[in-house]
Amino acid sequence: MSGSSSSVSSLEFPSPPLVALALSLTVYLLSLLGPYRPPVLLTGIILVCGAVVQLMYALYSQQRGDSRTAAVLLPFGIFWLSLVSYNVFPELGLGRHPNSITMFSYLSLWGFFVAILFLGSFRRSLAVQILFGTLLFSLLSLSMNYLRDDQVFLIIGCSCGFFSALTAIYIAVAQTVNQRLQRYLVPLGRRFGMVVGDSD
To answer: What domain count does the chain have?
Structure first.
């Protein structure tokens, strides 16, 4: 049973379900910032709370010696906090909205960061690969939207972001059920010949 337990955790998202839910909420909000502007207060609360959860667990992981999880979650927490300065502060009269070139460059750089995570996710479950893959396409598409006048990239970016958020929720539910029952009741998928005894 202990071997099965270790294999369950090795294939899933490297964080508790709460962190995966926080990630899903912030990613979903990111997909809404293009076509629909949620209330400023709600946007700020979601971004700050999601960022704090991810940052706190990143610091906790670093203290435990789990630098890999910290390296994933710490930049994400900083990213969500930076969106507060771009989307919330200007609405409150604190500063101005960045121009299109700035947002294109900013989202593209974060897209490249997620691309690195996506390449590193091939040793994890298929669900984690889908999570980072759809988030990658979402960020790159939303960045391209700032350079074009049509809505093609906006629709693609928002759709990928919504699917990425759903994937994060699915991973959180799967982690909760599988870890509680200590077996694969909710499938996450395996790739490249991974077996139950594999680990990172």
So the answer is: 1
